[in-house]
Every structure is written in C-alpha cells, then in structure tokens.
Write a structure and sequence with these properties.
The protein has about 100 residues and is of the alpha+beta class. It has a single domain, classed as Lrp/AsnC effector binding domain/regulation of amino acid metabolism (RAM) domain (Alpha-Beta Plaits), CATH 3.30.70.920. It contains two helices and four strands. A four-stranded antiparallel beta sheet has the order 2-3-1-4, with helices on one face. A hairpin with a 3-residue loop joins strand 2 and strand 3. It is elongated and about 55 Å long. The relative contact order is 0.31.
C-alpha cells in the first residue's frame, strides 16, 4: 500500500506540483529591481504589480519545502519590506508521457 490510487490502465500517476502566491511589498522606487531579482529565482513569475510597490508573485515547485525556501529567499532580498504567503496548494500535472 502506497497511499495512491491505482490507475486502471497502468499509467504512471500524474506528477504533483506545489503552487503558491505571495504578496511582496517594496518601496516604489525599488519595484523594478526587486521584480528582476525575484524573476531570477527558478519557478517564479510576477503575476501582477502595483506602482505603489506591491508585487503578486506565483511560485511553482516540486514540494512545499522548496516553496518555503523560495519565500524565505525573497523575503531576504535587499529592499523587500514584506513577503507574505497568500495561497498555497497542490496541483496534479498531466503525465508528460501522454
């Protein structure tokens, strides 16, 4: 017993991916520099921005530990005032061999 549903056709189970969104606050004059630094991290994307210094960031990773590590790294960037987790969930990616 491995805790997973068995596919009746014998196909491999779909891969799981962790998705999180975070809200990052910086000073407006540092917005572009912080956005570039965030986009340099693997699996990150700027989904939205507010010229007052807010960024909505989406993180995709293989596990929750990687999400946490990326969130911590972003919060430690120069000029980042806050980085807050807004949403975290697991999605099942389709089987890449199909």
């Amino acid at each position: 017993m491995n805790g997973e549903w068995i596919n009746p056709d014998g196909a491999q189970p779909a891969a799981k991916i962790e998705i999180a969104s975070i809200l990052v606050q910086t000073r407006p004059e540092r917005l572009d520099a912080v956005a570039r630094a965030i986009e340099a991290f693997s699996g990150t994307q700027i989904y939205g921005r507010d010229l007052k210094g807010k960024l909505v960031v989406v993180i995709e990773a293989a596990d929750t530990g990687s999400i946490g590590a990326t969130l911590n790294a972003i919060s430690s960037l120069p000029h980042v005032l806050t980085a807050s987790l807004v949403f975290q969930g697991t999605d099942t990616a389709s089987n890449p061999r199909e």
